[in-house]
């Protein structure tokens, strides 16, 4: 059987799009996936240690598959895609073994090629566990710990792009919100080539005429154009005062605002 062994990859994006690749010279098919040999995706040697050691591998490819477009790569649509790798007998695909399961790290493009780190199922174990005691809130606005309903009136707004200068957008149709209301919030593209992409808001300035100037922490992978629709979601700076006054949600605040500052530990103690 060793002379008929090939490798087959399945890569599934977060939006459900799934592609199959193989290093065999003909198509393979199993698990309702067609694995194509001319798709331009390969992998360096897969190194998997025993126990919980980190998998070390890299997926590499060329922009030769119609479904792997430069536009999607730049937009981050392939980031964190699920990856499965089999060793399969190409003469009988029923004889196969799953040897890797994980996901792609950040996809990096270089010229006409791309590469991405492969991260195994043990990767989450490298993250810090437990709760952090900090004056600011540890929850994400709107998640199960925060419990704030972002669909409440006034906490989101939709508008139209007038211009985009490398992550500095001018929007129209958004009015009635205080300056800075959307700082630390999120901008979500609702139409255009960048539809579905989002980014965190660094600065938010209200302008006359129902206009809004928004600066993003990181520019979108696909640049919006005039006429594209967007949604802005209110931001939270994690402070207790913001939770209480802006969101009226202090009951669910997940920080510890009364913790003494770090320099309290080294401050001279006064005998009483």
UniProtKB/TrEMBL annotation:
Domain Bacteriophage phiJL001 Gp84 C-terminal, chain residue ranges per copy: 180-263
Signal peptide annotation: none
Pfam family, one: Phage_phiJL001_Gp84_N
Originating species: Paracoccus kondratievae
Name of the protein in its database record: Phage protein
Matches recorded under InterPro entries: Phage_phiJL001_Gp84, Phage_phiJL001_Gp84_C
Coiled-coil annotated spans: none
NCBIfam families the record matches: phg_TIGR02218
Top-level lineage group: Bacteria
């Amino acid at each position: 059987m060793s002379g008929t062994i090939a490798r087959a990859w399945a890569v599934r994006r977060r939006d459900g799009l799934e592609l199959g690749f193989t290093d065999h010279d003909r198509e393979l098919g199993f698990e309702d996936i067609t694995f194509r040999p001319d798709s331009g995706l390969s992998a360096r040697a897969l190194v998997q240690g025993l126990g919980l050691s980190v998998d070390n591998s890299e997926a590499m490819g060329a922009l030769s598959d119609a479904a792997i477009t430069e536009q999607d790569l730049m937009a981050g649509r392939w980031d964190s895609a699920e990856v499965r790798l089999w060793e399969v007998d190409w003469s009988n695909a029923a004889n196969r073994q799953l040897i890797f399961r994980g996901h792609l790290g950040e996809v990096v493009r270089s010229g006409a090629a791309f590469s991405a780190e492969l991260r195994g199922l043990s990767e989450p174990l490298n993250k810090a566990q437990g709760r952090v005691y900090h004056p600011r809130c540890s929850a994400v606005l709107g998640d199960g710990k925060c419990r704030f309903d972002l669909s409440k009136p006034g906490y989101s707004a939709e508008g139209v792009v007038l211009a985009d200068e490398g992550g500095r957008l001018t929007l129209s149709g958004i009015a009635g919100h205080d300056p800075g209301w959307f700082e630390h919030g999120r901008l979500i593209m609702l139409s255009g080539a960048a539809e579905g992409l989002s980014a965190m808001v660094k600065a938010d300035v209200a302008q006359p005429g129902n206009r809004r100037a928004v600066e993003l922490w990181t520019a979108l992978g696909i640049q919006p154009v005039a006429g594209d629709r967007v949604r802005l979601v209110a931001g939270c700076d994690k402070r207790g005062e913001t939770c209480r006054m802006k969101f009226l949600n202090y009951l669910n605040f997940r920080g510890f605002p009364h913790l003494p500052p770090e320099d309290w530990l080294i401050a001279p103690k006064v005998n009483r």
